[in-house]
Specification:
The chain is an alpha/beta fold. The chain is 43% helix and 21% strand. The strands form two sheets. It has a five-stranded parallel β-sheet with strand order 2-1-6-7-8, with helices on both faces. Helix 1 runs parallel beside helix 2 and helix 2 packs parallel to helix 7.
Length: 225
């Protein structure tokens, strides 16, 4: 039984890794974490499974005159989800939608290059992909990430999080082959309330963990040959 709150993302990642390791997922596993908060969790999962770690960057598309209000989200260069209800109710012109999408596409590309230090994204076709975040509140970000991943034709997609709202988990079960969530507290306001330490993760930490994972995977591969 999982005891909440988690001490931090590292503890949550180790507990999630133990659950996933028990499922014997095979060797063709790739861990994809949602930056920034999902990366420390994903790092622990990847470490336990001796799997490569990469990121999938999802960006909110804000209403032009009210950026904090999302009218959609985007991942990679191929998947976007728009809220037609918000667009219709606010009468947002198509030219402004197109401009906002183009802006966020550029930011997705910038962040992916930054986090990977210019390396190409890992190939997902035919692989078992673990989509990892530090938690699910509404599930909207993970929804876009899952659709992006599925478009790249993996053999299997598994969404894995330490904690999530029941409604979000139910929504996302339909977007993956499997969903693994260690805890679904009855009263869920925000992901951060289920961690004692929920400090912000910065870009430098994301880069460091990705680089450390690359070194560990290289060393493990050499050892088992």
């Amino acid at each position: 039984m999982i005891k909440l709150p988690f001490a931090d993302r590292i503890e949550a990642g180790k507990l999630l890794a133990a659950e996933l390791a028990a499922r014997k997922l095979g060797t063709n596993v790739i861990v994809l974490a949602l930056p920034r908060g999902g990366v420390p969790v994903g790092f622990e999962v990847a470490k336990a499974l001796h799997a490569p770690l990469d990121v999938v960057v999802v960006r909110k598309i804000g209403v032009p005159w009210q950026p904090e209000l999302a009218m959609g989200a985007i991942a990679g260069n191929s998947v976007q989800v728009l809220s037609q209800d918000i667009i219709r109710s606010l009468r947002i012109p198509q030219r402004e939608i197109d401009a906002a999408v183009a802006k966020e596409r550029l930011e997705v590309e910038r962040r992916e290059k930054l986090y990977r230090s210019g390396r190409a994204a890992l190939k997902l076709h035919g692989q078992t992909v673990l989509l990892v975040d530090d938690g699910l509140a509404t599930g909207s970000t993970m929804l876009v990430a899952a659709r992006y991943v599925r478009a790249l034709k993996p053999a299997r997609t598994i969404i894995a999080v330490p904690v999530g709202a029941f409604e979000a988990c139910e929504l996302l079960k339909k977007e993956a082959d499997e969903l693994v969530c260690l805890a679904t507290p009855r009263y869920f306001m925000a992901v951060g309330e289920w961690f004692e330490d929920f400090r912000q993760v910065d870009d430098a930490e994301v880069q460091r963990l990705l680089e450390e994972n690359r070194s560990e995977v290289t060393a493990h591969t050499a050892l088992v040959r």
